[in-house]
Design goal:
The chain is of the alpha/beta class and 328 residues long. Helices cover 33% and strands 15% of the residues. The strands form 2 sheets. Strands 8-7-6-9-10-11-12 form a 7-stranded parallel sheet, sandwiched between helices. Strands 2-1-3-4-5-13 form a 6-stranded mixed sheet, sandwiched between helices. Helix 1 links the parallel strand 1 and strand 2. Helix 1 packs parallel to helix 11 and helix 4 packs across helix 6.
């Protein structure tokens, strides 16, 4: 690499982060802030040394299959890297990093908010007022369900799932059960879940027992459509489903049918299989809350994510192992 490597930043970042990157490197910013096309990604990978990419950049084998690929690091802005074909990128000799830990609490807050909005019908109520349909208070109008004393089921017990569990237990006295095929790494007592949280043996057991099911597992081949017609049918008819993980964990058409038939009480989604498209069947329903992928969307967290990505770039350029290495 030259003394001043070329870095492509695929989406607009906060001014502080962009200034910090610009002070260190020869940077190509995406000033349009529109997701790059397949052709644009292919061209950039031939022109730059490092790409600071995001979940909107679908980086596939085709981008590294030809000659002239110059990129040697994909510094992902986010934790999940399921938008990157990792095996193909690794075989091309390109390293991948991510930005873990810094978005834990804010993402858990959105999961908590989706649970509240769904159970208390806040999205529906807000729309009811805005359309002028509200005719005044009455004892049985728009009744929801209380969180107090309910059972929260966490699927995937990593840092975000445990943060959601801590908040729900502390704020609402919810009982917490959780399921994960492998025991999570508990490397910091401050990130543990509630002391009385109970691990269950299987996903069906969790689905049958939980009043709220909150998804926090990674997107993998094994978790694709983990929530489908069969598993959704295992939930209680009074239960709610929350997803702040990745969209393809849910079969959205099956969920829409389940909600339409009132086989579960409601759902709250922040991520979608076909982002930014949301299937029409979901958009037509009142008993689902739909947010535009806001999980880590605070000024503070997005700045920390950008600086964490920059720290990985700095380490790589200096010849060191990046602190958040996913694949090399």
């Amino acid at each position: 690499m030259s003394d001043r490597p070329i870095v492509a930043v695929t989406r607009k970042l906060t001014p502080e982060v962009e200034a910090a990157i610009g002070s260190r490197y020869d940077v190509r910013f995406n000033r349009t802030d529109i997701a790059l096309s397949t052709e644009q990604i292919t061209q950039l990978m031939k022109q730059v040394d490092i790409m600071l990419c995001t979940v909107t950049d679908k980086i596939r084998a085709e981008h590294v299959s030809g000659s002239g690929v110059r990129v040697r690091l994909l510094a992902n802005f986010g934790v999940g890297v399921n938008h990157i074909e990792r095996d193909a990128i690794r075989h091309a000799g390109i390293a991948i990093t991510n930005t873990p830990d810094v978005l834990t609490e804010d993402t858990a807050d959105i999961a908590l908010g989706l649970m509240l909005m769904s159970m208390r019908r806040m999205g529906e109520g807000e729309r009811h007022v805005r359309t002028g349909a509200w005719s005044g208070w009455r004892p049985t109008h728009m009744l929801g369900r209380s969180t107090r004393g309910k059972t929260l089921g966490i699927v995937g017990y990593g840092r975000i799932g445990r943060a959601m569990a801590r908040a729900a237990a502390a704020a609402f006295g919810m009982r917490v059960i959780w399921y994960a095929p492998r025991a999570p790494r508990m490397d910091d007592a401050a990130t543990d879940g509630p002391a009385d949280a109970t691990r269950v043996d299987s996903l069906p057991e969790l689905l049958q027992r939980a009043d709220v099911v909150s998804l926090h597992c990674p997107a993998t081949a094994e978790t694709r459509h983990l929530m489908n017609a069969e598993t959704l049918a295992m939930m209680q008819p009074t239960a709610y489903l929350v997803n702040t993980a990745r969209g393809d964990i849910i079969d959205e058409y099956a969920l829409a049918e389940t909600l339409r038939e009132r086989k579960i009480a409601g759902a709250g989604l922040d991520v979608y299989e076909f982002e930014p498209s949301v299937v029409a069947e979901l958009r037509e329903l009142e008993n689902v809350v739909l947010l535009p992928h806001q999980g880590s969307g605070t000024i503070e967290t997005r700045e920390r994510m950008g600086m964490r990505a920059l720290a990985n770039i700095d380490a790589f350029v200096d010849g060191n192992v990046p602190p958040d290495l996913v694949t090399w």
